Amino acid sequence: MRRNTYKEDEILEEPFDFKHLLRASVYIKKHAGKMILAMVLSGLGGITMLFAPMIMRRALDVAIPEKNTTQLYLLVLLLFGAYLASVIFTTLRSRIMVKVSQNIIYDIRGDIFRHLQKLPFQYYDDRPHGKILIRVVNYVNSVSDMLSNGLINVVLEILNLIFIVIFMLLVDIKLSLVVLAGVPFLMIFMFWIKQKQRKAWQSVSNKNSNLNAYLQENIVGARITQIFAREDENAEIFRELSGRCQKAWMKAVSYSTLVWPGIDTISVLVRAAIFLFGLIIFGQGNESLGTIVAISSYAARFWQPIMNLGNIFNNFINNIAYLERIFETMDEPVIVTDAEDAVPMKDLREGNAKDHGQVVFDHVSFSYEKGKEVLHDVSFTVNPGESIALVGPTGAGKSTIVSLISRFYNLDSGRILIDGQDISKVTLESLRSQMGIMLQDSFIFSGTIADNIRYGKLDATDEEIRGAADTVCAGEFISRMKNGYDTEVKERGSLLSQGQKQLISFARTLLSDPAILVLDEATSSIDVQTEKALQKGLNAMLQGRTSFIIAHRLSTIIGCDKIMYIDNGGIVEAGTHEELLAKKGAYYKLYTAQMEDLASA
Ligand SMILES: Nc1ncnc2c1ncn2[C@@H]1O[C@H](COP(=O)(O)OP(=O)(O)OP(=O)(O)O)[C@@H](O)[C@H]1O
Ligand SMILES: [Mg+2]
Prior knowledge:
62% of the residues lie in helices and 10% in strands. It is α/β, with parallel strands linked by helices. The site of adenosine-5'-triphosphate (ATP) has 11 residues, from strand 1 and helix 11.
């Protein structure tokens, strides 16, 4: 498992592998028609511009010496026409390509996001979220530009180069050879600088990714930062990371600023050579002024496509690295996935709900990390409609047991059966849509309170939402808020108290009407009074569904049909509250200790 932090650069596992480009072709195939059209338009634009020097030569060598004004006007008109046509063609091309490139972004992002949502929790525990974000946002942007414009430009620049050479040769072969003699010098210069540039830009991208990772972590952890008064230390780390970005950037730019002066020098030398050869060495009178001007104008154009090809090549190398990271994310194994022959689980609410929702653990063993078993050979049966409490010390495996019922992880061995169906053989969607899970940390999404309650049942009416909220005692505080159910709660529900968040997620769960209910420390942040009031709603919620309740506050679970005491990877004792008290075992100890605490408080 790769645990890359903001402190280290991401390392490329297989740099410059063109097979990524091949794989990316699925995203461009469907735009092939538009891309070819864009290419033709661009080609036409380029070719029209190449007539300009020829028109100029005609003007200089024929129309002006002959004082033929009609012809001169005609040539000016032609020149203007060539420019105009070229502008129109290139604008059209840009419009088409913006669309294509945005479509590619849309498709790749859609695919990554869909995949990210399926990835196991472990994936998110293992890497900085900022680095995941930068892949979905920045890398995809950059890559889509290469896949759309980059590919077209390669073809165009090569054609452009060929056409410039052809046009140049048509005008004058000897002078063209003078221009071509400059190519080796350019090649050597480019080869040197491009290599430097590529390394420098890769470093920029790595440093940015690190900065992003640190920034993201700090935004999420801002509260903790302030609690521990770590602002100064963090600012120092940030300054350091930011400084590295700056340094990397400056270095990359300093190479880039060398490029044009280098090219210009070669270009000026070549043009000087054209005049030298044209006017002196090839003999006076052999070359017309128009020819020399035309050739030197082609020569000025000649470097552009070579330069552009160099840039494109560089971009390709960088973007193929990005592609690698994008595909790596897409290939990240979805550990928990539907079996090939998975069938939908039958509807547990169908018919008489009372007879549905039996949960059986059949010799279940499970470990998060190989060799460290968290559950060992656990077996139990929960009958339809029963409420089961799981108690036990911290880290005992209570949350693990309930997360296995939703199949968030695969078992090492054993089976879990719901109404006789092995949950590893049914589709995840059909399984999870029948489960209602509430955790201690009730996640609130951005949007209104009503949106949040509606999260699990999108077609719920306003009445249903109000009904659910009232049942769980959330109606009162919601109606006291400024806009009631339409109050915007902002990301993560920053407007709400922890207990209010829990009440909202109770309403959300109730509304989704799950057949099996899991409450993992779901009432821990609700005050005792509200909890008492909630108890009625809670009882209504437990009615007719199998439920698992985990609570450290034992008052919540006394009424449960069965209590299981979990410790050391297994069930230590099980029974009703009374039975367990009579047993005077682990539960008895826990209970009496809590009662004493309450009494002394
Ligand atoms: N994602 C994970 N990766 C690796 N180990 C984990 C993971 N989640 C839990 N564990 C380990 O599994 C064991 C059981 O954890 P679990 O969360 O089920 O405990 P719990 O009984 O719910 O405790 P608590 O009462 O504190 O919520 C712990 O030792 C914990 O360190
Ligand atoms: Mg837990």
